[in-house]
Amino acid sequence: MTNSAYITTPIYYVNDKPHIGHAYTTTLCDVWARAMRFAGRDVFFLTGTDEHGVKVEKSAMARGISPQQLADENSAEFRRVLALFGLSNDHFIRTTDPDHKRQVQAFIKRLLEKGHIYLGTFEGWYDEGQEEYHTETRAKELDYKSPISGRPLTRAKEDNYYFRLSAFQAQLEKLFAERPDFVRPEGRRNEVLGRLRDGLQDVPVTRTNFTWGIPMPDAPGHVIYVWIDALLNYITALGLADEKSPRAKYWPATYHVVGKEILWFHAVIWPAMLMALDLKLPECVYAHSFWISEGQKMSKTLGNFIDLPTIERYHATYSLDAWRWYMITQGPLEATDADFSAKHFHEMYTAELVNTFANCASRTSAMIGKYFEGALPADGGGEVTNRNWSAICHEHVRQTILHYERFELRQAAMTALALVREVDAFINETQPFKLAKDPANVQTLGTILYRCSEALRIASCLLWPIMPSKVEEFWRCYGVTCNPTKDRLADLATWGHLKPGTRIEKCALFMRVEAPAATPTKG
Ligand code: MSP
């Protein structure tokens, strides 16, 4: 495994406003990026906005502003939201960046020179909303309707430049056969394989029906198709078109994280383009499923859309970290959609954060306050129950890091929380509050509370990528000095870092919240 790591989100269309979908994918990448940095890897985390194409041109026209103005406004809104959510991306790319445009043209020229792009006529079924062509077989499967908007596909014909995708059929089949983890999860990989077996058709690289895009070099009237422009962001952000780029070391990407609806572009067209450019292929394209809301597809008319104001209400009521926790532990990371429900959010918050993590941290700190005047007691040695805490923690740390690495984020969260539950079980079995009644037990009492604090400290390190602010608050209460950008998780997570005598303050991490009366959607 190389030390550098690269993770990307899709770049988001600027004709939409940020909502739970964007927040979700970006949060997944953020958690992974934080975990890998903490694990000692040199991470580059990229997100950004996709700003060209007919849709942006049309929305701008409808508002009576220029496409550039619209892109500037909405891209700024995406960046504002990233900052608001504390997302730790290393760069934010815009497809209107001059540096991106220059490199896209350079890559397209390269493909032309190598004969992977040709001028030809194309006819097919076109989904205007998605700016995507479908083959006859696929269009029939879709009942000649857009799978996204439900609007009829139109028969379209164009004189365009095309990318010889069909020439990569065998190489792509080989890729899928040799690297079963290239597309994850498995259910999604099987869908791609099924479509791949139908045979590949060449795809347009330019369009002539709009002007808001990157001009095709030496071909007046031809504009580079938005999807080709957009996919290339993953390598233009690293400056791969240039001879020497300091960011080149991050290629190939470790994970391209995308939603299931755009997997085909990432799992088939993108690797073929990279093969044509003689560049290495990403390690994994990870396609998550969709959030639905209160049991139904999100829609603005139903009023169940989890838009930015709704998300902000959750932040205000439950905290940003509670929101992140719900995204990671209940989100649609695997092949099925996940339901966002106000009631479920509340239940999970109360069970896992208030009653487990916060309660355990609070009662341990309260007992240290009460029985040891707030100074961490020493571990007096000897067995208290048959727990080998050092071994228990070591195993939880090992498994959690492995889950993070593999993008099994829910399992990472659950393994870290299991360590907190172990501390809870230890307290319930040893009943320190009863032992405290007899001064003769002071040493055992101290040993128990030291072990609880130390195991909690280790669990907190494992939870940090998901809940950075709350964990940092925990660290302040427990006198933990930790800098996740410098310190190494594996070193910190070994037993015995907390020093006896450290001041421990009463710790209240997640407040109890009243159950929601009804769905807090619009209003
Ligand atoms: N611009 C293209 C991507 C180009 S990448 C080279 C695009 N943009 S988008 O703004 O529509 O963003 C799509 C992404 O938003 C999805 O792939 C997914 O990551 C996220 N989501 C949008 N709605 C979603 C849900 N309801 N649930 C979860 N995520 C979804 O497509």
Overview of this protein structure:
The chain has 19 helices and 14 strands. The chain has two domains: 4-288, HUPs (Rossmann fold), CATH 3.40.50; 342-492, Isoleucyl-tRNA Synthetase, Domain 1 (Orthogonal Bundle), CATH 1.10.730. The mean pLDDT is 95. Helix 13 (342-372) runs antiparallel to helix 17. Helix 10 links the parallel strand 11 (255-259) and strand 12. The protein has a six-stranded parallel β-sheet with strand order 3-2-1-11-12-7, with helices on both faces. By secondary structure, it is α/β, with parallel strands linked by helices. It has helices at 20-38, 54-63, 67-84, 98-113, 136-141, 169-178, 186-197, 226-231, 233-236, 263-276, 308-318, 320-330, 342-372, 389-405, 409-430, 432-435, 442-463, 468-477, 489-492, and strands at residues 4-13, 42-50, 91-94, 117-127, 132-134, 154-163, 183-184, 203-204, 206-207, 223-224, 255-259, 284-288, 291-293, 338-340. The chain binds 5'-O-[(L-methionyl)-sulphamoyl]adenosine. 5'-O-[(L-methionyl)-sulphamoyl]adenosine binds next to strand 1, helix 1, helix 8 and strand 11.
